[in-house]
Amino acid sequence: GQARYVDDVELPGMLYAGFVRSPYAHARVKRVDASEALSTPGVVAVFTPESGRPFNFAPGGKVRYQGEAVAMVVAVDRYKLYDALERIYVDYEALPAVVDPLKAMEPGAPLVDESLGTNVGHREIFSSGDADKALRESEETAEEELKFQRVVPAAMEPRGVVAAYDGRSLTVYSSTQKPHVVREELARSLDVPLAAVRVVQPDVGGGFGSKLTVYPEEVRVAAAATFLRRPVKWIATRSEDFRSATHGRGIILRYKAGFTKDGVLRALDATVIADAGAYDWHGWALAETVAQMLPGPYKLKDARAVAVSVLTNKPPLGPYRGAGRPEATFFIERIMDLIAEETGLDPVDVRMKNAVEKAPYENPFGLRYDTGEFKAGYARGLEALRYRELKKWAEEEAKRGKILGVGFSFYIEITTYGFEAALIRAERDGGVTVAVGIAPHGQGDATAIAQLVAEELEIPVEKVRVIWGDTDVIP
Predict the structure, then answer these.
(1) pTM (2 decimals)?
(2) 99 contact partners, CB below 8 Å, separation of at least 6
(3) Among 244, 266, 291, where does a domain finish?
(4) For residue range 260-301, what is the model confidence (pLDDT) as tens digits?
(5) What is the pairing mode between strands 43-47 and 232-235?
(6) Number of structural domains, the chain?
(7) Is residue 308 within 8 Å of residue 122, measured between CB atoms?
(8) How many CA atoms lie within 13 A of 89 on its CB side?
(9) 218, 244, 270: which is the final residue of a domain?
(10) Helix, strand counts (H, E) of the chain
(11) In which domain, by residue range, is 456 found?
C-alpha cells in the first residue's frame, strides 16, 4: 500500500487534461469547434490543431488511426473535464483506410502519409553468402507465410503524466520505462535546455514495452503546464489506453528454406514485414531485430532477410515483451519443425544437427553470440523436460482418444542494446546508496539489485538503498 503511482501525485492548483479522439481510422480534420467547451464552467484551456506546435494535433490535417487525439481540454476537475470533452465538435471527412500491411504495399492502396508516396516506411536487406544459389542446389525446399498477430500490452496501470512548471524549470512525473529519454524529447519538443527539465518515474504498474515510447500526450501535458503555469495531470482510461498506446507483435514472415534430405538447413530467403501502424516509431526497428535474429541458435551461411516496415491505419507498433526476439524464435522454430515434417525426422534430431556448437559465433547477419554452449544446453533442457517420456505418454493418450501436444523451443536473444550506468555511494552510517540507470516498472528489480550489491560488498541487504527514475539524481 506504500507504492506511489502517477495518479497518486497531487500538487497544489492541479488541473486535469483529457483528449478528444478520432472515431475514424483515417479522416481529414476539416474543423474543430471548441467554443461550447470553452464556455463550460471550470474549463481553463482548449488546444486544437490551430494551436500548432508543440501540441501538433492532426499533423498534415488528418488523423491516421482510430483513437488519435485531435484536441485537448484542461479543466479544474475531472467531472468538468469530461463534460467539456463532449462539447467539442469536430468536422471529419472520412478517408479510405488500409489495415492490412500486405494490401498496404499494393499499388493504389490508400496512403497513410501522402508525403512519402508509399506505405513502405523502411526497407533494409541483411545478406550472407549466396542464398539464391544455395536454394537452387538444395535437395529439398519449403515455403510458408507466418503471421504474428497484434496485441495490446494492457499494463495494469494505464499511461499517465503530471507536469509542473515554476517559471524556470519543468518537472514531469510519467509512467514510463525511460525517464531520461522522456527528458530529452521534452527538451527538444518544447525548445528548452535539457538542464531545465526533470523527469521523475514514480512506481509503475507494469509496462511490458508499451511505456518505452515517448508519447504525444507527455509532450502536450508538459506544454499545457508550461503555458498555463499550473500543474496538469492526465491519466488514460482503460479504453483510451487500448486505442492510443502502442501495440505489440504485428509481424509477418514470408520465407523459402532449402535443406538436405537428412534435415540440415542450407539456405533461407525471408521477408519480415512489420505492421508499423500510423507512425513508424518502432516498426522498422522491430522488423530489423526479427530479421537479424531469424537464424536463432542454428548454423547458416547462405541467407537473405529483407526487413520491411509498412504504414497502416492502426495505432503505432511498439516494443512488447521481448520486442522482436520471441517473433524471431517462433519463426525459426517453425522452420525447424517444417524441416522435420518434410524429412520425416525427429524435431529434436533436426535441431541438434543444425545447432551452433558453442560461442563465440557470428550469425550470417552479423550478430555475435558471445557466450553459450548451445548443444550441451539444449541436451540438458530436454533432459530436464523429460521430453522422451512426455512424447511417449502423449502417444499412449492418443490411443485412448486424447490428443495432446508436446512442444519445446530453443531460444536465444539479444540481451542489451548498449550499457547502463550506476553510482554506488558509501554512507557515514555504513549503509550504501545505489543509483541505477535502469528503470524498474513492477518487476522488483530494486530488490535484486540490493541483493547483488550486498553480496558483493558483504553487507546486510537492509543496508542497501536503491534509487532510480529521477533524472536529476540518476546517471
Answers:
(1) 0.93
(2) 25, 312, 313, 314
(3) 244
(4) 999 999 999 999 999 999 999 999 999 999 999 999 999 999
(5) unpaired
(6) 2
(7) yes
(8) 5
(9) 244
(10) 13, 20
(11) 422-467
